[in-house]
């Protein structure tokens, strides 16, 4: 009996526990609804530099439409500071965002989680949580951290900055640096949006900073009677006093519209629980931690009201709007350069860098000062060639570079960036001294050029003309080589100057060669004119012989025959006769154009004879076409009408084929001619018209046979005209009456239909026109009446 009572009590205890737990579970389900599970929104490329959008996550985000206005809660902070665990705790879960015990980061890029919760007041919040990759992780640049911070900040309605144990000076400076870079990034995003005409409603407000809550986890410091927010404000004031006035204007308090601070005690004193917080239950956590966590929740969801914080327009965005903003921010972040901000140390570095640059450039100029414009040069003392100049410049450059390195020894931040500036300045000065030296080279080359031109003119005057072009060119070749060789010998050291944009050696060498050619051309002009006259007369002669030979042909001939004759006369006159007459000019540079002119002339004459031949073919084709039409008419005229249409069509098609074949046979040799094809098409069209005329004639003949029956229909339809309103019904009635009366007389339905159609169109035309005219008048009156009613209604309504 006792055992039975004990069992009964145990059963009642289990039942009461189950019943009491159900309201809690229902309350939790009512207060929390997951819209979709955590997914990776942004991930880095293989170099951990560029950001890549996860398109499948974007599709999830786009599914949250107008009815799902979202508040975005983002959390950022250092590597392994408990960001993912904090987000899980804020929503009462333990494993939504990944939490790990190892030293390797669990969150890569940016993850998102959408859910709907009710706060303690029962107000509903549509949340989009952003969990981010921590700062300072291995093999990750500062710029990558800044990109993650900037995108999360500008997407968020409220931002949580998460740190561990304490807030020190370096943490404040790093947050301020990230925030100032984000300000510049927001400005670039605004400019980019304007450039691409991206329509994002209220973009200026969207790119404003959200309110900030700084959460310090594992905090066990004593801050006295101060609240965490007061403690943080005092730290910020002290931070501003340590900075110069200009920088304090852009301190953290000026950037974020409001800042609060919350501290969280250690979640647990048990090492195993701390190592596996993703598996910890609420009962496993420290009561102090739970109390401070609830205060943080109340601040986020009740006191601050995350949906309306600072009238933040970002709390009113839909999923598609957030995805559009995200694409813009990622595009700008992956752009040319992510924004940076200056510092006091960078100013000192720039000052030292500038001083070292100036001293190095002065030293370079002193070494290069041996090159002066005022100094004169002669054949015995020419200017520096490029190799000599390069040797002097390399020595000066090395001296300046070593001096720069010595002046900035130990200042790597100034030395490395300044190297590029030094290189640019040295390059500019190099170009200046190179220009001065080139000026001296130019004067020297010009002097040698003038001396050689005078010598050339004197020796050309001593040549006695006329002589053959070949003999003349032989003498000139020797003279030209002597003059050019003399010039090259005196200026050869200035050749092969690849870096010299104005290679004066080559400039004056080419000018010298051109002047030599100009003088040679003057001597050759008279001889050239006589040769050109010979070439012109030769072209005229072979053209006349070609025409005379081709005129002997009896046209028309086939294209093959015409081409064969052309090839024969072309080879005889151009390749033999013309070349024999103009043999003296074969080696002249202008011979080829005249030969081409002769070829063109013969081609033009061939085209002329082609056109004449085509005209003859056209005449013959036209004659044969007309003859075939006459033959067809003669054959068709022998058919006695009326006959059944099928028989008539068959007979005429046979006559048509016979006529066309007759045309083709008589003009078989010219079947590839355009005239042949044109007349064949004309013949086919004419025969089709003749067939159509014969068919219409057959219909007319057949109509006279049944005219008595059709007259009966005509009288009947005239009497019935008043009962019809529309032409279509009138025609149908006339067709039915006519068909009943002639169906036994005309067996062929196609022929019968054509007879009835001709009868209706011709014999009942007057009735059809009057009937249709009446309906048109009635329709017009109806339309006018309808428009009058609509206009009256519009006036009354206004």
Automatic annotation (TrEMBL):
It comes from Dictyostelium firmibasis. CDD domains: GBP. Belongs to the TRAFAC class dynamin-like GTPase superfamily. GB1/RHD3 GTPase family. Residues 67-228 form the GB1/RHD3-type G domain. The chain crosses the membrane at residues 774-796. One of its GO terms (molecular function) is GTP binding. This is GB1/RHD3-type G domain-containing protein. Keywords: Coiled coil, GTP-binding, Hydrolase, Membrane, Nucleotide-binding, Signal, Transmembrane, Transmembrane helix. InterPro entries: G_GB1_RHD3_dom (IPR030386), Guanylate-bd_C_sf (IPR036543), Guanylate-bd_N (IPR015894), P-loop_NTPase (IPR027417). Gene3D superfamilies: Guanylate-binding protein, C-terminal domain (1.20.1000.10), P-loop containing nucleotide triphosphate hydrolases (3.40.50.300). Residues 480-529 form a coiled coil. Residues 1-21 form the signal peptide.
């Amino acid at each position: 009996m006792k055992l039975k009572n004990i069992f009964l009590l145990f059963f009642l205890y289990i039942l009461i526990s189950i019943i009491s737990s159900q309201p809690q579970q229902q309350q939790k389900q009512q207060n929390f609804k997951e819209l979709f599970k955590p997914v990776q929104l942004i991930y880095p490329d293989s170099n951990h530099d560029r950001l890549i959008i996860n398109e499948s996550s974007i599709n999830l985000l786009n599914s949250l439409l107008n009815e799902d206005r979202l508040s975005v809660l983002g959390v950022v902070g250092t590597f392994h500071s408990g960001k993912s665990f904090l987000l899980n705790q804020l929503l009462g879960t333990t494993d939504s965002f990944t939490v790990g015990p190892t030293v390797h980061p669990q969150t890569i890029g940016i993850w998102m989680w959408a859910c709907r919760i009710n706060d303690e007041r029962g107000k509903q919040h549509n949340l989009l949580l952003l969990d981010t990759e921590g700062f300072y992780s291995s093999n990750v640049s500062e710029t990558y951290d800044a990109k993650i911070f900037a995108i999360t900040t500008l997407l968020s309605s409220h931002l949580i900055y998460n740190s561990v144990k304490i807030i020190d000076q370096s943490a404040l400076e790093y947050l301020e640096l990230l925030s100032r870079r984000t300000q510049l990034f927001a400005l670039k995003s605004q400019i980019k949006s304007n450039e691409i005409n991206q329509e994002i409603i209220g973009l200026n407000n969207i790119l404003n900073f959200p309110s900030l809550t700084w959460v310090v986890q594992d905090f066990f410091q004593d801050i006295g009677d101060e609240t965490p927010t007061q403690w943080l404000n005092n730290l910020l004031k002290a931070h501003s006093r340590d900075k110069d006035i200009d920088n304090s204007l852009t301190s953290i308090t000026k950037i974020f519209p409001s800042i609060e601070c919350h501290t969280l005690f250690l979640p647990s004193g048990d090492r195993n629980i701390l190592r596996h917080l993703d598996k910890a239950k609420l009962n496993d956590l420290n009561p102090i931690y739970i109390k401070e966590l609830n205060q943080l929740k109340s601040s986020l969801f009740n006191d601050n009201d995350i949906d309306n914080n600072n009238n933040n327009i970002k709390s009113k965005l839909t999923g598609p709007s957030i995805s559009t903003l995200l694409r813009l921010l990622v595009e700008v972040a992956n752009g040319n350069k992510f924004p940076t901000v200056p510092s006091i140390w960078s100013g000192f570095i720039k000052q030292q860098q500038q001083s070292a640059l100036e001293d190095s450039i002065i030293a370079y100029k002193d070494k290069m000062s041996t090159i002066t414009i005022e100094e004169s040069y002669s054949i015995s003392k020419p200017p520096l060639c490029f190799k000599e100049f390069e040797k002097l410049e390399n020595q000066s450059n090395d001296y300046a570079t070593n001096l720069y390195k010595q002046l900035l020894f130990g200042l790597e931040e100034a030395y490395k960036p300044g190297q590029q500036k030094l290189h640019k300045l040295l390059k500019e000065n190099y170009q200046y001294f190179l220009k001065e030296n080139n000026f001296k080279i130019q004067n020297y080359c010009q002097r040698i050029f003038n001396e050689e031109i005078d010598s050339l003119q004197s020796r050309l005057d001593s040549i006695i003309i006329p002589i053959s072009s070949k003999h003349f060119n032989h003498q000139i070749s020797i003279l030209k080589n002597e003059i050019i060789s003399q010039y090259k010998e005196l200026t050869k050291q200035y050749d092969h100057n690849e870096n010299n944009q104005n290679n004066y050696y080559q400039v004056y060498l080419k000018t010298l060669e051109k002047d030599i050619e100009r003088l040679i051309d003057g001597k050759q002009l008279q001889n050239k004119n006589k040769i050109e006259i010979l070439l012109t007369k030769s072209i005229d002669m072979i053209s006349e012989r070609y025409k005379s030979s081709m005129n002997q042909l009896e046209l028309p001939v086939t294209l093959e025959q015409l081409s064969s004759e052309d090839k024969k006369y072309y080879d005889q006159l151009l390749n033999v006769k013309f070349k024999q007459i103009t043999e003296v000019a074969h080696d002249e540079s202008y011979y080829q154009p005249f030969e081409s002119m002769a070829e063109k002339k013969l081609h033009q004459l061939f085209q002329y004879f082609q056109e004449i031949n085509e005209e003859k073919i056209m005449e013959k084709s036209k004659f044969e076409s007309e003859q075939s039409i006459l033959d067809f008419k003669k054959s068709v005229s022998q058919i006695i009408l009326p006959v059944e249409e099928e028989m008539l069509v068959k007979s005429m098609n046979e006559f048509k084929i016979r006529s066309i074949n007759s045309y083709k046979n008589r003009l078989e040799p010219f079947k590839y001619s355009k005239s042949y094809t044109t007349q064949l098409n004309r013949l086919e069209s004419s025969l089709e018209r003749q067939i159509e005329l014969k068919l219409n004639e057959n219909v007319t003949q057949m109509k006279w046979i049944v005219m008595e029956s059709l007259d009966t229909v005509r009288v009947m339809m005239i009497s019935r005209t008043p009962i019809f309103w529309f032409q279509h019904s009138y025609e149908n009635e006339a067709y039915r009456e006519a068909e009943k009366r002639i169906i036994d007389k005309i067996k062929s339905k196609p022929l019968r239909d054509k007879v009835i159609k001709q009868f209706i169109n011709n014999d009942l035309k007057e009735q059809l026109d009057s009937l249709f005219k009446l309906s048109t008048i009635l329709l017009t009156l109806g339309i006018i009446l309808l428009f009058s009613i609509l206009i009256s209604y519009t006036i009354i309504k206004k």
